[in-house]
Amino acid sequence: MATTIDSPRAPHTVRRSRGVNWEKWGWIYMRASGVVLLILIFGHLFVNLWLGDGIKAIDFAFVGGKWSDPFWQVWDCVMLWLAMIHGGNGMRTIVNDYATRALTRKILLAGILVAVVAEIVLGTLVIFTFDPCPAGSPADLLPSFCPVN
Amino acid sequence: MPNNPAGTMTPRRPAGTLYRGREGMWSWVLHRITGVAIFFFLLVHVLDTAMVRVAPGAYNAVIDTYKNPIMGLGETALVAAIVFHAFNGIRIILIDLWSKGAKYQRVMFWIVIGLWVVTMLGFAPRHLINVFSEVGH
Ligand code: HEM
Ligand code: HEM
User: Fold this and answer.
1) Which of ligand 1's atoms lies nearest the C-alpha of B92?
2) Pocket lining: B33 vs ligand 1, CB cutoff 6 Å
3) Using CB atoms, which residue from B36, B90, B127 is nearest to A49?
4) Cβ–Cβ gap A56/B134 under 8 Å
5) Does A31 map to a domain?
6) Which among A35, A55, A119 is the nearest to B127, CB-wise?
7) Among B131, B43, B114, which residue's Cα sits nearest to residue A118?
8) Which residues of chain B have a CB within 8 Å of the CB of A50?
9) What is the percentage of chain A residues whose pLDDT exceeds 70?
10) Distance CA B3, CA B13 (A)
11) Based on the structure, what is the number of domains in chain A?
12) What residues of A are in contact with residue B97 (Cβ under 8 Å)?
């Protein structure tokens, strides 16, 4: 491909395709989501790993207690969406940096997209279809507020 | 004396620059590695959490694996990665948006490291005690 180099004094014209500048919005998104994620993830880790007995206390009943409160449902849902899209977009940057063959790049980018979409759908469904007291489960595994207890 | 395989006097390594081999480069390397690590953890984490929709016993079986000492060390490393990525992320945002950001990027890197140490001192001992007091129970 022949490239013509403009004369140094040629008037500067910025050629920009009309329409949404997605790279710019991606850049803004990484920063805006990062600030919010800091609060959401630190909160998540503080409650799940630091308070009380930390990791020792986590079991089905623990999740049942948290997800019967819409506050934590929304918290986790926002964290899921923001983190998956932030991480996926970051991975896209990295693939663009290192994958030199066009086909490898396409396959990796498609893989990231599929993984991010699938996990967001799955995670969102899990949060909002969750039943803290599933019928027929051993009572000692369920939260204390379940009717069987 | 020729000091490289080509037999010329060209130095083996380029001389230092403002970026190469300094805070700017290492913070970028660490930010990248930690970002990838957290991403892969999150992929697994959403799947293990999804076990709550399978059965209470199935979820407990998976989450119990998080309580053994080796995983406990892994979780400590994960939190270390997140805390660095989060604080350094704020540093990146400040470099981009704060008028003095670029000027203070080096100082801010060491502030990030300092905050990281303080946060990990608050987290790691407590978490490791939780994990290791579980051993043998
Ligand atoms: C805790 C709060 C977080 C903050 C403040 C934060 C901040 C940032 C910032 C500012 C960038 C640079 C974007 C750019 O250069 O345009 C970035 C990149 C990235 N982040 Fe995060 N992030 C956070 C959490 C996460 C999480 C949870 C993940 C994974 C799921 C993640 C994965 C990545 C990846 C893979 C990159 C790309 C790195 C690169 O291009 O070298 N981050 N983050
Ligand atoms: C070892 C550290 C971690 C433990 C023990 C842990 C534990 C848990 C638990 C028990 C839940 C169930 C709901 C709840 O408690 O809110 C959950 C959900 C979740 N966690 Fe974590 N977490 C950890 C680290 C992280 C990190 C670093 C991230 C973000 C990058 C994260 C993101 C999420 C998300 C998005 C959900 C919702 C999943 C879904 O929609 O199905 N977690 N986690």
Assistant:
1) 10
2) no
3) B127
4) yes
5) yes
6) A55
7) B43
8) 123, 126-127
9) 97
10) 11
11) 1
12) 31
Per-residue model confidence as pLDDT tens digits over A10-36: 877 777 778 899 999 999 999 999 999
How far from B24 is each of B21, B96, B107, B116, B134, CA to CA, in Å?
8, 14, 11, 17, 41
CATH tag, B23-134: 1.20.1300
> Is A76 near ligand 2, meaning CB less than 6 Å away?
yes
> Kindly report the CA angle at B42 between A123 and B114, in degrees rounded to 5?
135
Residues B97-121 have pLDDT tens digits of 999 999 999 999 999 999 999 999 9
Rounded to 5°, angle at Cα A30 from B28 and B74: 60
* CA B36 – ligand 1 centroid, Å: 9
Chosen for mutation from B36, B44, B54, B59 (greatest number of chain A CBs closer than 10 Å) is: B59
Q: Is residue A22 part of a domain?
A: no
Range of the domain at A42: 27-131
**CATH code, A52:** 1.20.1300.10
Please check whether residue A141 touches B, CB under 8 A.
yes
User: Are A23 and A62 spatial neighbours (Cβ–Cβ below 8 Å)?
Assistant: no
Residue A3: the pLDDT is: 77
